[in-house]
Specification:
mainly alpha; 3 helices; elongated
C-alpha cells in the first residue's frame, strides 16, 4: 500500500506465517489436554496467509484526495481543543 514502509513485508510476512502456525499448535495442545479421547487428526490448519496486490497508484491518490475533501469540510476537533487550551493559558497569565 502506498504511504507505508516499503520494507514492512520483511516483518509482516514472516509474522503472519508464525501466527498461523502458533494458532495450529495451540489447537493441538488444547486437544491433547482433553485427555484420552484426544483426536488431533480433526484439527486442521487454517488457510495459509497469502499476499495480494494493493491498490494502484491512481486508486490510492483518488482515495487520498477524497479523504482530504471530507476532512476539509468538517471542522477538526483538535482545532477546537487547541483554541480552548490557548484561552485557558491566556487566562492564567
Amino acid at each position: 500500500m502506498f504511504g507505508e514502509n516499503q520494507k514492512a513485508a520483511r516483518r509482516k510476512i514472516p509474522l503472519r506465517k508464525a501466527q498461523t502456525e502458533r494458532s495450529y499448535r495451540r489447537g493441538v495442545a488444547l486437544e491433547l489436554a482433553r485427555g484420552e479421547d484426544a483426536d488431533t487428526a480433526r484439527i486442521r490448519r487454517k488457510a495459509f496467509w497469502r499476499k495480494w496486490p494493493g491498490p494502484t497508484l491512481a486508486e490510492a491518490i483518488e482515495h487520498k484526495l477524497a479523504t482530504r475533501q471530507v476532512l476539509a469540510a468538517e471542522p477538526r476537533r483538535s482545532d477546537a481543543v487547541r483554541e480552548r487550551r490557548a484561552a485557558r493559558r491566556a487566562g492564567r497569565g
